[in-house]
Amino acid sequence: MSILRIICSPRGSASESYRLSQRIVDRLVETADGTPPPVVDIDANLLPHVDPGYAMALGSPQDPSEDELGRGALRQSADLIRALREATHLVIATPMHNFTVPSSLKAWIDHIVRVRHTFRITSEGKVGNLADRPVYVAISSGGDFSGGAHAQPDFLTPYLRHVLGTIGLADVTFFSVQGTARSAEALAAARARAEAEIAGHAFGARAVEAW
């Protein structure tokens, strides 16, 4: 087992989404046999946007060779895709910004959703190239987005489910702490609900293959 965690909040390890993701990581570690698995953290806030060289490569019939990648976005993309391929489990720690993913997470997505690498285009549409593996998304939100007459729109979870599915990752589970902008009591209750869901989830139920 190996765990890749994408950290998307500008508050980093002080954020609510990171706190929730750590509960997920802890549960995954508990299910590992023998030696504790490595956990690789990537801070998506440090990622640059894709650049002109990246855009040109996507519009070309083939990519440059490994020696021609240079030090720009194509090299960054190759490194991020390699880290994703090597992980048996993916954990995404993200806030909800303006009803959807923050720009940091979108930057990571733009690097790893790459034609000829993580997906291919066929006569039937886009097909993922990655072997499926468990993906756990830890979401924090200032408001409530699940249920209720006053719930805010949620463009985050359907978007992530679709874009990850495009590259072959269909086994996606969401956990969330909602209403973080409310009272301390409401936050404590939201944390308790999320942690109960994590505690009750069968993390070890799906066999982990070698990717």
From TrEMBL:
Catalytic activity: 2 a quinone + NADH + H(+) = 2 a 1,4-benzosemiquinone + NAD(+); N,N-dimethyl-1,4-phenylenediamine + anthranilate + 2 NAD(+) = 2-(4-dimethylaminophenyl)diazenylbenzoate + 2 NADH + 2 H(+)
Source species, domain of life: Bacteria
The enzyme's E.C. designation: 1.6.5.-, 1.7.1.17
Every Flavodoxin-like fold domain range: 1-198
InterPro entries: Flavodoxin_fold, Flavoprotein-like_sf, FMN-dep_NADH:Q_OxRdtase_AzoR1, NADH:quinone_OxRdtase_FMN_depd
Pfam family, one: Flavodoxin_2
UniProt signal peptide: none
Top-level enzyme category: oxidoreductase
PANTHER family documented for this protein: FMN-DEPENDENT NADH-AZOREDUCTASE 1, FMN-DEPENDENT NADH:QUINONE OXIDOREDUCTASE
Subunit and partners: Homodimer.
Biological function: Quinone reductase that provides resistance to thiol-specific stress caused by electrophilic quinones. Also exhibits azoreductase activity. Catalyzes the reductive cleavage of the azo bond in aromatic azo compounds to the corresponding amines.
Family to which this protein belongs: Belongs to the azoreductase type 1 family.
HAMAP family cross-referenced by the UniProt entry: Azoreductase_type1 (MF_01216)
Name of the protein: FMN dependent NADH:quinone oxidoreductase
